[in-house]
Write a structure and sequence with these properties.
Family (chain A): Belongs to the succinate dehydrogenase/fumarate reductase iron-sulfur protein family.
CATH architecture of the largest domain in chain A: Orthogonal Bundle
CATH superfamily of chain B: Fumarate reductase/succinate dehydrogenase, transmembrane subunit
Structural class of chain B: mainly alpha
Number of strands of chain B: 0
Radius of gyration of chain B: 24 Å
CATH topology of chain B: 3 helical TM bundles of succinate and fumarate reductases
Number of strands of chain A: 7
Largest interface: A-B, 31 and 26 residues
EC number (chain A): 1.3.5.1
Strand content of chain A: 5-15%
Distance between the termini of chain A: 58 Å
CATH class of chain B: Mainly Alpha
CATH class of the largest domain in chain A: Mainly Alpha
Organism (chain A): Phytoactinopolyspora halotolerans
Structural class of chain A: alpha+beta
Number of domains of chain A: 2
Helix content of chain A: 25-40%
Number of helices of chain B: 5
Shape of chain B: elongated
CATH topology of the largest domain in chain A: Fumarate Reductase Iron-sulfur Protein, Chain B, domain 2
Radius of gyration of chain A: 21 Å
CATH architecture of chain B: Up-down Bundle
Oligomer: heterodimer
Order of helices and strands of chain B: HHHHH
Order of helices and strands of chain A: EEHEEEEEHHHHHHH
Helix content of chain B: 55-70%
GO molecular function (chain A): 2 iron, 2 sulfur cluster binding; 3 iron, 4 sulfur cluster binding; 4 iron, 4 sulfur cluster binding; electron transfer activity; metal ion binding; succinate dehydrogenase (quinone) activity
Shape of chain A: elongated
Largest sheet of chain A: 5 strands, mixed
Largest sheet of chain B: none
Catalytic activity (chain A): a quinone + succinate = fumarate + a quinol
Chain lengths: ~250, ~150
């Protein structure tokens, strides 16, 4: 069975022997025009073993309640639009298979925490992007005329390979308890973004970025709870990256 | 690598960055480092303390006023207990400071909680230090029945 965004959960009667099951989706809904408080809403659907949480959301939006609002673009774990709190854990809806979740209980789907909810599962991502911007996520070099390539050995590239995988889905930042309680903290993602440049041999802005992360609300607020590493849909070792930034700060300054 | 002046990028910088510019210090770095170093030292000090007080010799049965008085007559244990007191108090207070910073959102409340915390820590440290260095198990002008048995008869 192919699941595409165009023709999603419209299965043929014999869906290639894919097992189907009943699943209850418990959605955290909030409509700013009519609700004062968010509310839970249950939908029981018949889904298949190949379906993801995103497919269930699509089925609800397209066949039951068109007002359900959520973000998604590529639907294949690349764009990072559909991070949400699924059964209490930050996951990408497009990478979480329904059959991997406990189906005897309702599957709860909430917006990611720590950012203001705009409607249903859509949150205001601006503070998250602002933190990313403040670490200067662009190549900083001296001179203004690159007359040849900036060469790099495979070993030098390997140094920051892990953090180049980030898709800015905000799953890590919004799983961080420090970020929940303190809106000033940069959050894991911004540190991952900085790590990607700090350890890049071609970049010359490491000192500036480290200075920014040495801030009161910078890396030192990290409590190494590993929520971010657990949440990352790209498998980035976020906590390790944060510790490496701490280490770089420590041995440059002490 | 020398700090370079970087031309502003095309996009406007985050509105949060100006307040980050003020007070660039390494305070949080040192606080973090202190937690790590004092944590390791406290492991040794606290478990050493527990071992000596509760396991060595007669163990817990030997623990009484005279035992503590005997320990504090020795400069080694005075320094040990002093280190333990200072490190534990500063380590614990710094941990609480972080929790206050995390969870107290109102500026006023946060300030008063921290004032309370620092006052309590300072009083405990000063009093504890005073006791360790001025401790006398047999004060000269105390009533005889209050003195422990090992004191020389007045």
């Amino acid at each position: 069975m192919t699941v595409t965004t165009e023709a999603p959960v419209k299965e043929t009667p014999d869906a290639g022997g894919v097992p189907s099951f009943q699943v209850t989706m418990r959605l955290r809904r909030f409509n700013p025009e009519s609700d004062t408080e968010p509310r839970w809403e249950d939908h029981t659907l018949t889904m298949h073993g190949t379906d993801r949480v995103l497919d269930a959301l699509h089925k609800i939006k397209w066949e039951i309640d068109g007002s359900l609002t959520f973000r998604r673009s590529c639907a294949h774990g690349i764009c990072g639009s559909d991070a949400m709190r699924i059964n209490g854990r930050n996951r990408l809806a497009c990478k979480t298979l329904l059959k991997d979740l406990p189906l005897d209980k309702p599957i709860s789907v909430e917006p990611i925490k720590g950012l203001a909810v705009m409607k249903d599962l859509v949150v205001d991502m601006e503070p998250f992007y602002a933190a990313y911007k403040s670490i200067m996520p662009f190549l900083i070099t001296t001179g203004n005329d690159p007359s040849r390539e900036r060469r790099q050995s495979p070993e030098e590239r390997e140094r920051f390979d892990d953090t180049t995988k980030c898709i800015l889905c905000a799953a890590c930042t919004t799983s961080c308890p420090v970020y929940w309680s303190d809106g000033q903290y940069f959050g894991p993602q911004a540190i991952v973004g900085a790590h990607r440049f700090i350890f890049d041999s071609r970049d010359e802005g490491a000192e500036e970025r480290l200075e920014i992360l040495n801030d009161r609300e910078g890396v030192w607020r990290c409590r190494t709870t590993f929520n971010c590493t657990d949440a990352c849909p790209r498998g980035i070792e976020v906590t390790k990256a944060i510790q490496e930034v701490k280490q770089a700060l420590l041995f440059r300054r002490v | 690598m020398a700090a370079t002046t970087i031309a502003a990028p095309r996009s406007p910088r985050s509105p949060r960055s100006p307040r980050r510019m003020r007070g660039r210090t390494n305070t949080e770095l040192y606080a973090w480092l202190f937690m790590r170093v004092s944590g390791v030292l406290l492991m040794v000090l606290v478990f050493g303390h527990l071992f000596v007080n509760l396991m060595v010799g007669e163990g817990i049965n030997a623990l009484d006023f005279a035992f503590v008085a005997g320990k504090w007559a020795d400069p080694f244990w005075q320094v040990w207990d002093l280190l333990m007191l200072w490190l534990a108090m500063i380590h614990g207070s710094n941990g609480l400071r972080t929790i206050i910073n995390d969870y107290a959102e109102r500026d006023q409340l946060r300030m008063w909680l921290k004032v309370g915390l620092y006052t309590a820590a300072a009083i405990t440290i000063v009093l504890g230090t005073l006791v360790i260095f001025t401790f006398d198990p047999c004060p000269a002008d105390a009533a005889a029945e209050l003195l422990p048995s090992f004191c020389p008869a007045p």
